[in-house]
């Protein structure tokens, strides 16, 4: 069986779907399957071996954007098109392009969902030619439902079975401005009914998307996301840890965070909970340690959190480590006493649940989205009231005591 995985890149940003797909393809390759990971839009930013290395990039982000803005751009010479789709050029603009807010790309989103009837048909032609001549896939897997505009054409020309992994598309679609939001949802509903298999990472998200897509209940199967465990090793302080030492844990208790540094993931909730814990003064040496992806658009949010800490005299008690590599990420998470990502979003999964468990660090998550389901199944954390710093502080205090 030959499987092709189509995964959008996120430029200079770490992307949960990219990490998930890369780990999946690597695991399938190690089991002897013929698999190929194809990047779309922008090069992938990963914290482990890139499974798409050596594979052409399709739907280059600059070309896709210019084709949307000018109907004449699809007629530019091929050498110009190839130059603008080169990985070097795309890496230079990647972090800014990937951080574009959904409200700015409603027309482009709808055009991509129109597939061969959209303005990016030249890109779809190139991908289909390559799939037919170089891959001849038995299965084509789409990383998310926003790619399903190309589904009908790919299926017709390759005869492959198709699958689509669902993971948080709703947040992007709901952030589009009208009329694009309604048009995009309607197209996603249409394509979702045509794809051979939809797969959700949690029962919560399967049920939620069945409702949003107008599908019968219990029609979307659930396959939980996985995590590549290389580098994690035994939990700090465990008997097995003697053979795999890590840097000493801090003498002062430390509560920490590792996810995209923005309001949606709730870093400000954790900052307020940390300030409340220090105000109570039960743990006077308590520290805050923050890591994760930071875009140019999220920097003002981070600066506001730093000012909040400075106003309470606690900025020196906090550390910030944006955009670190895999090894540093693991070291950061394992150095914590408690871990929390107080996300405001109804998360479809949340890979950081597995990361905290792999690091052996007790974790606190809001009681909504997929978190209750995953915590119940793994026992790897406790739940607090969503968007409630007081509830988070109370729970953290009970564990630190």
Question: Tags for this entry?
Answer:
401 residues, Rossmann fold, five-stranded parallel sheet, six-stranded parallel sheet, alpha/beta, 16 helices
Task: Describe, in plain words, how this protein is organized in 3D.
The protein has 401 residues and is an alpha/beta fold. 42% of the residues lie in helices and 13% in strands. Strands 8-7-6-9-10-11 form a 6-stranded parallel β-sheet, with helices on both faces. Helix 5 runs parallel beside helix 9. The longest helix is centred in the N-terminal third of the chain and has 15 residues, at 16-30. It is globular. The relative contact order is 0.10.
What value does the average pLDDT take?
A: 90
Largest sheet: 6 strands, parallel
The order of strands across the largest sheet is 8-7-6-9-10-11
Find the structural class using helix and strand composition: alpha/beta
Number of domains: 2
Strand element count: 11
Series of H and E elements: EHEHHHHHEHEHHEHEHEHEHEHEHEH
Secondary-structure blueprint of this entry?
Layout: E1 2-8, H1 16-30, E2 34-40, H2 61-69, H3 78-84, H4 87-98, H5 106-113, H6 121-135, E3 139-142, H7 151-158, E4 161-165, H8 169-174, H9 180-192, E5 197-199, H10 203-213, E6 254-258, H11 267-280, E7 287-292, H12 299-311, E8 318-322, H13 326-334, E9 338-340, H14 351-358, E10 363-366, H15 371-378, E11 382-384, H16 389-400
Parallel strand pairs: 1-2, 1-3, 3-4, 4-5, 6-7, 6-9, 7-8, 9-10, 10-11
Helix pairs in contact: 5-9, 6-7, 11-16
